[in-house]
Amino acid sequence: CHAMPKQNYNVKFCELCSNGCSYLEYCFNCDSSSNCFGCIGMRKKEYCILNKQYTKEEYEEFVPKIREQMNATPYKDKVGRIYKYGEFFPMEMSPFAYNETNSQEYFPMSKKEAVSQGYKWYDAEDRNYKPTIKAKDLPENIKDVED
Question: Which among 10, 19, 72, 75 is placed 20 to 30 Å from 85, CA to CA?
Answer without folding.
Answer: 19
